[in-house]
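User: For a reading group we're discussing how well predicted structures match intuition. Take MULE transposase domain-containing protein. Before you show the prediction, I'll give you the sequence so everyone sees exactly what went in.
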Amino acid sequence: MKQNKMDMLHDCIRKGNAKKTKAIHIKMPLQEAHTNHTVSLESGFSRSMHSKLRDLIIQHVQMGVTSVPYLRRLLRSYVQKEINDSNIINPCETDRSYFPTTRDIYNSVHAALVTGRYSQFDQENLLQKIEEWKKQNPENIIKQWNPKWSPKYFMMDYSDQEYQAIHHTFPDTAKYLCYFHVEQSWMRWTR
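Assistant: Thanks. Here is the predicted 3D structure of MULE transposase domain-containing protein, as structure tokens, for the group to look at:
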């Protein structure tokens, strides 16, 4: 009987006269499915950290605070003073969204450090500094650091820009190429 119905359905689809309906099916467990555990207590184990707590961690990491035990105490205090006062029902201590584990806090600190490493603010400062350096003459910068410095020789990779900069800044200095890098260049060239 099932096979006959499937064949009829395939024929209708091929001929283009199959009836189409959209339906959303939701399957919810019965109350008996939760007899071996308490729903309210364990439901917090898999929840992600509350956005206010994550923002608080990011804020403190930007100020240089990365101590997980300190942040754990700070978050606990924040939940008790700020979130508990605003809610009628206090969150349970097993709810990871309000009481994250040490690993959760550590991961959030790491994520904040990584995202802050290449922040837009730092990139803008670097670009401004590069523009300042371009306006200045590199020879003058080096000589300002130590006007009496007069090296006898320089060891460098083969870079025309590097050679020209050293030649113009210290014309009487001997310039040597690094043997390792010369050999490495020859090996690349011969391949």
